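worker-3 :: picked DNA polymerase
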Amino acid sequence: MSSNKSNFFHDLDGLDYSSDEEQSTSGFSGFLKTSSAPEISKNTLRASQSRRNQPTIKPFRVIPESKQIFKGLKFFFVPNNIIALARKLRVQRSQEYGALWAQTWSSDVTHVIVDKGLNFDELRKVLTPEQLSGEVAIVNQDYPSDCLQFGQLLSVTQTRFRVDGIPTKATRSQSTSKTATNPESSPRIKDPRRRDRRSPTASQDEGLSLATPSTDNTKNPTDPTINTVDQPESNHEILDEMVQKVKSVNYLPLDDHDDDDDVLYSILQDQPEAEKDNDQENQSDLNVPEWQKNFTCMQKHDGAAKSDNPNTRTIEILQKMADYYSKTADNWRTVAYRKAIATLRRQNKKISTKAEALAIPGIGCRLADKIEEIVSTDRLRRLENTDITPEDKALQLFLGVYGAGYAQATRWVAKGFRSLEDLKTKAELSENQKIGVDRYYDFQERIPREEVGMHGKVVRDAVHAVDSNMEVIVAGSYRRGAADCGDIDVLITKPTGTLESIRILMLDSVIPKLVRQGFLKTSLSVSSHDDGSKWLGASALLGKDVWRRIDLLFVPGEQIGAALLYFTGNDIFNRSMRLLARKKGMRLNQRGLFKDVLRGPNQVRLTDGSLVEGRDEKQIFQILGVPWRPPEHRIC
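worker-3 :: tokens ->
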């Protein structure tokens, strides 16, 4: 256990709970009383080190001076102590790569590294306005590790390094810091969306290559501008490659929410020949270029392992890791694990060793190590370490509270809260969060398929009682054939209905009636925007006290096909379809498929384009040249 934890900071597959452990040891309020944290006494360190199961820390490593990217920089950490293991490792790593650790404030501090559990208001309780107003760069805890990932300093103005609540002026002042002004320290990241205008084929796309990998061996392999994802022969894990690629485009402006993370999922589109579905009969009649056949949406994905799949136990544990990363909003790791799982489902033999795992396209060193560990020990230490401390367990608990994301859960842990009772009695909760705490275990429970259908029937009967021409469709994982669901998505539409007419009918007639019947228990959100209308809340069947999360989605008849595609999922399949549309100069979202979409530099959308199809789901597949995939074949 200790050896795994000591690699905690070095392993990109680990998450950083820097704001957790120190709160139980020193107390958050006690820390705020000191504007510059004093050195920790030997007694305190001795007491901390004597705790049971305390992981050991590796000794300092000797890093060649040429690789000490932090040389000449001075870091002040907030909190500025090493009681927390994760922060201790972060401080040590920074020092190994040349940084000086300012244990008390000094005028030559170049960077303030803030734990993610703290916001700018809390930072101001630690440092004075004068200390914050200079040219010092104020960044969150991701900054040092990301710099080490790229092998050089990154711009401190990137959004992902921004401390919550920091004023715009303070953000601008960071651009004058040493890392931002030094031209040699700014990463030369290749624009991942720039195309070679001489050819429209996807193989020319320098950042989102979908075809033949580059064979240019003249480039420096350590140069962060090189796209390592296009080199399948590399021994680096695809997980790390995905992380680097996503980070390299993190600063780019994105479209609206319809395609806000196509960049992330674009790196999943190429399917190695050995992994392709034997589904040629469905593709043989399609006149599509070869590069398009590599897209995920071009393959059949039924989500089922073979009945005699020998990798069932490995898949089970990897799925738990994927679920964990999904909760923490770590999208790229979630997808990496899901891709590995999909690959293992297609294997006819048991993958037992690292070498065997590495021979499979899409699995690299670290995932291969984990597969070997699972097979040899029937466990995964990384998974066990997700709740090794009370702080870890509290974070996992709080991530399940409706209305609270990862940032909020981390702040609660940082303030010393450890239980739902703590949240009820001590935390300032929004109305939705209060419901999320009160009905925590209801919302965490999976909903059996039969019960989802019963909820849908109650809504359908109420809608038809008002207008028999309305259509009510249960979407989401239920439509994909799942045995159970996390929540209930219900689409309400009418072939000739407008969005406004459907919205008025639902909000003025149907929903009040369902509330009076006792079926709808509470409203969590009502949205009415240009991109659609929806009612989010909770429901319960008659005679049952278990509340279920239910979303009622209002869709005009002319958009129902696109909406069905969008709200059926799954997310990887959807984003593959949207990326394919973009590659063809089109745009796909929950409202329809649009053509003649003009985009400027960095793929910024200049025009919305004109609607091609929105009513017929199958027609959208046909226009894009994708074989029709029924919902049960969209489980990527």
